[in-house]
Design brief:
Layout lengths: L9 H29 L3 H12 L3 E3 H8 L3 H13 L3 E6 L2 E9 L1 H21 L6 H19 L4
Antiparallel strand pairs: 1-3, 2-3
Helix pairs in contact: 1-5, 2-5
Amino acid sequence: MNATPRWLTPEQKAAWDAFIRMHEKLIGRLSRRVQEDSGMSPSDYIVLAKLTEAGERMRFMDLVKLVEWEKSRMSHQITRMAKRGLVAKEECPDDGRGAFIVATPAGHRAIEDAAPTHVAHVRRLFIEALTQEELDTLARISKRVLTHMEKQPD
């Protein structure tokens, strides 16, 4: 027997719809700006940003989990980036099946060139729209939802 759906209240739906619309519009605009400003795809940018934040190298599966992508999507992305010289794969000495993904000098230069402009767009489109108190509240809410999600089945 199917349980009756617990529909969102009008207030819950309004909050959800506003959040989704803001997220889609913000990510869309930031993605277009990264592409136009640096020539990198948004996927290139996120991979290089995460690698350089982690000290230039990460295990492949750790990178997959960090960006919440499917393994096959990350594999294709890394292959494309490696062909362009932005990243390289290194064998993992303690795990013959594992691999490290490493930002190459070219990849490091690409993210160093792109990041300042990207941050300027984040500031202009997002940070400047909110007060520090609102940013603090948003950070707390986001962490709370993330913690809640970790406890839920996928």
